[in-house]
Structures are given as structure tokens and as C-alpha cells.
Amino acid sequence: MELRRRTTTRRGFLGALAAGALAARPSDIRVEEVSFDYQDYLYRTPIKFGGIALDRVTLLNVHCTVRSGAGRAAKGFGSMPLGNIWAYPSRVMGYETTLGAMKRLAERIRKITADYKESGHPVDINVALEPEYLKAAAGVSRELKLAEPIPKLAMQVVASPFDAAIHDAFGKLHGRSCYRTYGPDLMRHDLARYLTPEFKGEYLGRYVTPEPKPVMPLYHLIGALDAIEERNIQKRINDGLPETLPEWINADGLTHLKIKLNGDDLKWDVERVLHVDRVAAETQKQRGVARWFYSADFNERCANVDYLLAFLRQVKEKAPGGFERLQYIEQPTARDLRANRTNVMHQAAKLRPIVIDESLTDLESLLLAREMGYTGVALKACKGQSQALLMAAAAQKYKMFLCVQDLTCPGASLIHSAGLAAHVPGVAAIESNARQYVPVANKPWEKKFPGIFRIKDGTMKTGEIKGPGLGAV
Predict the structure, then answer these.
(1) CA distance 67 to 184
(2) CB 84 within 8 A of CB 99
(3) Which domains are assigned to the chain?
(4) What are phi and psi of 147, to 5 degrees?
């Protein structure tokens, strides 16, 4: 019933936009200009995604100009990695093919966004344009004769810096942080317009804080290819950065560790956690630290929930302390929930929060995940500021566990991700993987945001994100 209500509401909203039935406010904006460029970086060390070793990243940078009904103009900026291995996985198409398809889609999305002349709040603009972006993704898939069409998640990744740039410009135009632009003074519609009738009278501002958390613990990634101890290193990089887990813990004062697992080798996965726990325990003891945490990320590679239950049972039996330190489990099984309705998580979720990540692309997927026993939501800036905020509101309403992850975001995209984590109540920690894998992309930003890009005491100084818009530029 909730899904049908929301679909009807959304269709009504889009129909009203098309008919010009929504009266514009002087504070509303329309997009005047949109442009984009790319930056390419090689990783200092590979990271493994879904069984594939990745050694590079392409950033999509978007610039836009918006103008209000009162005639004032402002410029905005958004940036995001085109994480095609994560967003557009394929066993039949290579890296360059899926990346090329996402780049072609960026061209289409730029034109669609630039050609849209209706005025509104950034959330209204994104909600109105998303169906057109999806049509563009289908059109690119046909045009390029892709063996597998561009999925919605990949479309959202491509669209996310466009959405970010519009939110950024809107905040700058009004001289506010984006997170102060989600109340009734600047939004025409309450959340019932975008979600379900139970949100009537509630605005996004209710579900974000006007000020960022000043400090947040940082989740450090332990990739499946990363060395745990010195004996695991085949050849040192010798670039001055840590290369083993103890080196990273000591250098950054880490207390939160995210462990990437394979999901298709139970013995390896259990041993990996036990190995991490042994080394972390020894290192933390030397530091005099008694409390630290883990999360486990299977990148949807577990065949079924039974694999996850066996993993949890064995970790608990062999390392009770390590099991207690597990804060949550991330997307253990395949992202297509509708095709895997029997893979319910109710039993596993009694042991630890089970979080959807790749599965989460809209409210329908969130509601389905809840029905299937998932108890947590991973918010990501790479799915779009508008979508992330709407999902944050829904997750809080439904009392779900919340975390924010960053898709190895460097530079402005990390500031965007950090700002999201710092303004959403209930998010306990933040990820920052680029400092490990592509630190060169962070260099231009370190001087302005030292507490974001240089980690001390295991925390990120998110209170540094104070500027208007998204706060990056």
C-alpha cells in the first residue's frame, strides 16, 4: 500500500510540474548553465570491488549557474568518482566499456539539466529530472548496443555531481549551508510529496541538523588486497604513508575498521576477521585503547543468508571479543532484492544491523528491504544529495541504523560525503578511503580543510565544513 501511495503522489507531482500548476517562489531557482570536466588518477595501491582489483579513478566535476526568481545568480560545484566497477558491475563488458557508457550518459544528463527551465528547490528539480535521466540511460544503452543496460545505480552516480552542484549553488545564492535550506521557508513541499502521506507536515530540515557534528570517528578500510602485517607485504611502496594495519592505526589513531570480505570463501572470510582482530587487539593494547569497532562489507557476494549466519557464528565462537566489536554488516547478498525475495535477513539482523547499500536506489527499495529484514541503510553522496536526504528522512522515521559511505571519494566529493554524515542524526562514523588509495587527489584540498584530510586521534574534524552550499568551494 505504501508503494502505491508513493507512486501516485510522485506522478501527481510530476504532472503538476508539467502543467505549470505549481506557483514559483522568488527563492526558487532555475538552471542557466551546466558544464563538466574529468580528472583521472591512478591509485597508490589497488582496491578490490566485487572480486575485481581496481587501480584508477575518474572524477566527474560539474559546474552550474542558477538564477532565482528575484533575479540573483550563483555558481555551484559538484564532484564524484565515476565508480563504474561498483555501480555498473559486468562480467561481459570491460572497465573501459562501462566507464565510456557512463561518460556518454554524463553528456546527456548535462543537456537535460541545462534544458530544464522550470523553477524550484533543488530537490524538486532532481525529482522532476530523474525520470528523464533514466530515459537517457536507456537511450545510451541502445545507442551503444551495450550487452547489459546502464542500471539505475550507475545513472544516479553520474547524475549525483549535477544534483550536488545545484544544491551547492542554491545554498550559496541564499548565503547558507545547504543543510539550512531544507525547511518550509525555502521548500514549497513537505516530505509527503516525495515519500508517503505519513510525512505530511514534515520537511527535510527536521531530519538534518543545521550545524555539522564537530568531530566524527573515521572508518578505515581494510581491503581484501591490503597487508595486515609486515609479512603480508610483497613489495613496499615506500611513499611515506602507512602500509600495514598497525602502521595505519598508530599513524591515525584509528578506532573504527571496515573489513572487506570475499563472500564466496567462508574459511578465508572468517580467518580475515580473526587476523584483523588479533593484530588490532595487540596494537590497541600497546596504545592503551580498550574500545574499538569493526564493520564487515561483503559487497553483495554472499550466495545466501546462510553463508552470513555461518560467518557470524564462527566469528563469535573463535573470537568473542571480535564479534562484539562488529558494529554492522554491509550488503551481504545480491543487490536485486526482488529477484532474491527468499534471502531474508530477519535472523541475521537479530545478531547485528544488516545494512543495504547497492540495493538502495529509491523509497521502494528501502521499503522492500525492511520487509526482508534489513535493519540499516547506507547513505552515499554518490547517489545524489536529494536522494540521500530523502532516504535519510525515511530511515530515521522507520528507526533504522544509519551509516554514510564514500565510494573512495577524494577532494570535493569527500567534503560532500563528510558533510552528509555530519548533518544526519544517528550517523556515528564516516569513511574516508581516498587517503589510503588516491591521496594525490586530496593534496589540493588539505590546506583549506586540514581536519578533513589529515586524520588524528581516529577522527575527522567535520566542523570545518562551514561555508555556504556544500562548503567545499
Answers:
(1) 20
(2) yes
(3) 2-206 (3.30.390.10), 207-464 (3.20.20.120)
(4) -65, -30
Q: What is the 3-state secondary structure (H, E, C) of 212-260?
A: CCCCEEEEEEECCCCCCCHHHCCCCCCCCCCCCHHHHHHHHCCCEEEEE
Alpha-carbon distance of 227 to 45, in angstroms, equals: 11
Name the residue type at position 98.
T
Sheet strand arrangement including 73-81: 29-49, 52-68, 73-81
Whether the pLDDT of residue 382 is over 70: the answer is yes
C-alpha cell at 92: 561481459
Q: Where are the beta strands (DSSP E) in 389-439?
A: 401-405, 430-431
Task: Measure the CA–CA gap between 119 and 324, rounded to whole angstroms.
Answer: 51
What are the cell numbers at 52?
Answer: 575485481
Grid coordinates given for 343: 534471502
Contacts 24+ apart (CB under 8 A), 94-103: 97/146, 98/154, 99/58, 100/144, 101/140, 101/141, 101/144, 101/146, 101/150, 101/154, 102/150, 102/154, 102/157, 102/158, 103/38, 103/58
Q: What is the pLDDT of residue 134?
A: 98
Cell 505504501 found at: 2
End-to-end CA distance of the chain: 43
Of 412, 400, 11, give the one whose Cα is nearest residue 207: 400
| Amino acid type, 289 | V
> How much of the chain is helix, strand and coil, in % rounded to 5?
45, 20, 35
What does the alpha-carbon distance between residue 260 and residue 258 come to, in Å, rounded to a whole number?
7
**In this predicted model, what pLDDT tens digit does every residue of 261-286 receive, in sequence order?**
999 999 999 999 999 999 999 999 99
Q: pLDDT for 95-146, tens place per residue? A: 999 999 999 999 999 999 999 999 999 999 999 999 999 999 999 999 999 9
Q: Which three cell numbers stand for residue 378?
A: 547506507
Of the candidates 87, 143, 31, the residue with the CA atom closest to the CA atom of residue 135: 143
State the average pLDDT over residues 388-402.
98
Beta strand segments in 19-51, E:
29-49
